[in-house]
Amino acid sequence: MIGSATNQPFIRLEGVRKVYRFGGKEFLAVSDVTMDINEGELVSLVGPSGCGKSTLLKILAGLHGHDGGTVEIGNPETPFTPGRDIGMVFQQALLLKWRTILDNVLLPAEILGLPRAASRERARDLLAMVGLENFADAYPSQLSGGMQQRASIARSLVHDPKLILMDEPFGALDALTRERMNLELMRIWKESGKTILFVTHGIQEAVFLGSQVAVLTAGPARMAAHLDIDLPEPRSLSVKTSEQFGNYTKQIYALLGME
Ligand SMILES: Nc1ncnc2c1ncn2[C@@H]1O[C@H](COP(=O)(O)OP(=O)(O)OP(=O)(O)O)[C@@H](O)[C@H]1O
Known about the structure:
CATH architecture of the largest domain: 3-Layer(aba) Sandwich
Helix content: 25-40%
Radius of gyration: 18 Å
Number of strands: 9
Number of domains: 2
Largest sheet: 9 strands, mixed
Bound molecules: adenosine-5'-triphosphate
Shape: globular
């Protein structure tokens, strides 16, 4: 984990509120979310379905506005340019089927008009980092779901963004592949040093991956807690059987009223 040289957090959310308006009606999706996130953290956002996790991610991505509170990203040491500095990973890999894996990974660099040769080199390095170096010229249909999701993680990193937003990236994968992808993501996070926000329904997944876990309660989203997760490093799957891990998951179940 890289620490920020400044005392100012990388992300500052203060009393964030979001109202959806449709058909003359209003729906309060996020009522009051306050949290600070330092650079280099992997923060899991966990909470029940419909509690506003994706909405919060979309606000951070600049895809949705907010109706109250403040959202600030960046600090004097690490300035932040919204269109340039965000990488996104969704539940589905959303690869373009007519483009090779390498060309899919290159897409954000192309859209941003980054230098071609350097981007290709970086894309190849990223494919190696996610274990797909031999699939650069393959097409998405030739890859398994887990491999496609690894390609989409490489794509989210190709333009070297400062913030990666992940919305249930492993939700569509089978249980074993999901565990393998958790280990992969852990390694990629350590290697890249990026700030990552990771939305999940999975309490175990949230604790296993997060350096911090933000717990949101049911709609409208409110912060129930923001926990620091202190588990032995490097984390391996066996940590899930430890008492410490069990205590964190129990605490989150209790916060969600699911004891
Ligand atoms: N574009 C929209 N217009 C109106 N309501 C919306 C819109 N997007 C989301 N909502 C509502 O806002 C609430 C929060 O949705 P959101 O997708 O943020 O929740 P979530 O916690 O990510 O859910 P899930 O875990 O099931 O994906 C839900 O009740 C949803 O119906």
